[in-house]
Amino acid sequence: MKKLIFGSLALLALAACSTPPQKKVVVMASGKFTVSQTGDAIQFEPGTQHNEEVITLKGDKITLNDGTGSKDLTVTEPGVYLLNLKKDTLIGSLQSFGDASTRESRITQEELMNRMDSLQQLMVGTNVSPERKNHFLAPGDLKKISAEDNAIVVGPYRGIPASLSPDKDGKVPEVYKFITNKDARATLDRLTNMLKQ
Fold this sequence. Notes:
The chain is α/β, with parallel strands linked by helices. Helix content is 24%, strand content 36%. The strands form 2 sheets. It has a 6-stranded mixed β-sheet with strand order 4-3-2-1-5-8, with no helix packed on it. A 4-stranded mixed β-sheet has the order 7-6-10-9. α2 packs antiparallel against α3. Mean pLDDT is 86; it is low at 1-16.
């Protein structure tokens, strides 16, 4: 009997200490926005300044009000989502972190051409899939980026972390880097000019 009671207490203590998977929404906006105290509503005022915020949802939806009306955005499963309130399309993908011995110090011209081609395809939304862990979000889109609620989403104008630490469960977070199509075009133009030299 004592073993049964002790075992039940241990399970309850373990359940109380573990955090259930969360629903997180990263909002990237051109303009100002405020999030309600309950975290389930966004008041958005379009503008030109880039702003980002991570919202942890308790319910299954966010109500977005942009001054012209409101709409509900559904978020039913745990994980990390991205809401694009920018004026431009956001594109991004999983970044690979290897140890220093596996990182490339130089790439061939052929490999550079392949990467440029992949970027061009991503800019128009082709070859995009959850399996490839790359994403295309038109303005107003909300998409699930990762099922892992510890994933890190890095927006335009921000650098990716130099190093990563495991979370409380020992999992190293996935890192996704996003840029605007405008920035991607500028990168492609710069690389094209370099290849002509």
